[in-house]
Amino acid sequence: MDYRVLLASFERTQDVAGWPRQRVIHACLRAAIMDGQLPAGTRLLATRALAGELQVARNTVLYAYDQLATEGLILGTPRGSTVAPIASDAARARVKPPARSNAIARRMQGLRGLPSSGAEARAFAPGVPALDLFPLVQWRKQVERAWREMQPADLNYADPAGVPELRAEIRSYLAASRGVRCETDQVFITSGTQASLELCARTLADAGAITWIGNPGYGGALAAFRAAQLRTIGIVVDDEGLNPTAQDWQLRTPRLIYTTPSHQYPTGGVLGMARRLALIEQAARVGALVIEDDYDSEFRHDGPPLPAMQGLVADAPVIYVGTFSKTLFPSLRTAYLVVPRTLVEPLQAVLARMPPHGRVADQLALANFLHSGQFGVHLRRMRRIYRGRRDILLDALERHLGHCGTVHGASAGMHLALRFASGAPPDTEVAQAVLDAGVVARALSAHATGVRDHGWNGLMFGYSQVPEAEIEPLIKRLARVIAQYGR
């Protein structure tokens, strides 16, 4: 048994982003035992030998073996650890299929086939921050402080809109950094961007209402709109971003308009000021609401940053969506909405009848992290690092894949796009070939949101989590795959 191959295969098929190595190794061995890949009586590699093979500390392997022993899946003998007979019995067990299909509801069928929103920790998966550079020591201090200062009342359910201290800090931060105009009561805390989008889809539009989304666009938004039974229309995306025509406004008048103007997902375009103002004006004219997803606007590498659409016009019909999963870490599960004044009371009434907030300590810790200035320090550091990694990636793409197409969306964010030249093979096939070589580079066409061909054929490259020394070797590997694929 080649444990390196076993582990690599497990990591390729499972979402293990952010897991510690001991947990990954334990889960991998457990799955191999339960699937029968490691049958009863199999003698496992000694802990020291396995640690050397996997290039981890011996204590990491000891932890995994101890967990397996606790679960009764392996036995300790004088000759080492072996797979227990009970594990083989479990692997042979088969559940009798139900008489009737357990199909999900029809309204959820549309979610199948959409790109997953789960973050992958491999190069070049988009949207994954450099978690190894997160200031854990400072964060732990704020978490400890939050618990020290907790009062008995804080142990109850939190305000459905979120902890007031955090909402106030977010308001101050957005006013200074993004030009957002709002008061604290217009800020609503959610458990993530997906939760924010689902809340908008279910509370701001009736089933069947027309919703615009860029084509290509963010699959998480498309999933939220489809689950709410909204009629989604894929709108053409050009080099800047969402580009609706006069015919779109006249014949496909929207109730909701979803856009990522600071860094179009997935193509990376930045919507210019004139287009932003025109979109706001037209939305107000037809009574539509713009959902401005500013998911990675904090990272602007070239040129002056453009302010958020929400603050460009007083009382703009814009709902601003933000998250801390890109600036801090995904498992924090904290995002926010800034809604127009007219929606504050209706949204409060809706949230009062929904499951209340928990995790008060996490919200208080985040408020402290923002107020102390540590968030700003971390953000400035990551901007510098991401810009450097972007530069290395651009140079590597020019050296090894410059003949394949043109780069888009490199001026901002945490990913860029390589748009293939005409005559190139389908990006989905190239992405699969690259994935088989151990590199994640998502196909742009996989983010289609409408029946019309969006014309974007290429790959996405998320660079934020890739160490500088690994970028060019990975691009070289990818270039070899593409060269062989094209023969």
Automatic annotation (TrEMBL):
Gene3D superfamilies assigned to the protein according to its UniProt record, in alphabetical order: Type I PLP-dependent aspartate aminotransferase-like (Major domain), Winged helix-like DNA-binding domain superfamily/Winged helix DNA-binding domain
Keyword Ubl conjugation: no
SMART domains given in the database record: HTH_GNTR
All copies of domain HTH gntR-type, residue ranges: 19-86
Alphabetized GO MF terms: DNA binding; DNA-binding transcription factor activity; pyridoxal phosphate binding; transaminase activity
Family (UniProt): In the C-terminal section; belongs to the class-I pyridoxal-phosphate-dependent aminotransferase family.
Record protein name field: PLP-dependent aminotransferase family protein
